Amino acid sequence: MPVPEKNAVHKRSLLRDDVYTSIRDAIVDGTFAPGERLRDIELEKWLGVSRTPIREALLRLERGGLVVSVPGKATLVAPYDPASTHGVQQVTAALHELAARLALPSVTPEQLAAMDEANARFAAALDAEDVDGALDADDDFHEIFIAASGNETIAQVLGQLTPVLRRVERMRFSSHSGRESVPQHDSIVQHARNGEIDEALVAVRENWLSLPHVTPAHNN
Q: All domains of the chain, ordered by start, with CATH?
């Protein structure tokens, strides 16, 4: 399997969460492609850690739907599955809507201004074809409602679900369709400023449900 050229990028004292994050990000950004076999020895060389934290990370990734384990044979990057991804998308949209519902009654003008600023960075990154920058700015935009909700469980569950959608987000933000999120973000902020909570909640939900390539085909 191809791995990043730089070896031993982490020290032996690396926390298990960092091993998980490194492998997860390599799957999400396409370094490890769907169907790719993940070999412990190559991951050890790349990350500079022992097999134990790697196996723990792979188990977490399997629970999160990014890795598939074939007992006694191999560990593979999970193929893209429209049906399961659609399910994750629905739950993710509902959780972001819940975060907004909890946050909106007390959201401050400063927080809304920060959302405007994040959306401006998001638009600039899309114009520059900077997918990583767009993803970071998009995270910053949505994180404001998540943090303001005061509900840590929402953040924890989204942390498990979001990587599954990140592959879809990368596809969207690398194409012209990613521009559709800019006015959607504007609409969320404007409704919030106007005290239009129900309309803002609808806008949040529709923003997350608008990701492409995730709705499974329906039989007539």
A: 16-77 (1.10.10.10), 82-209 (1.20.120.530)
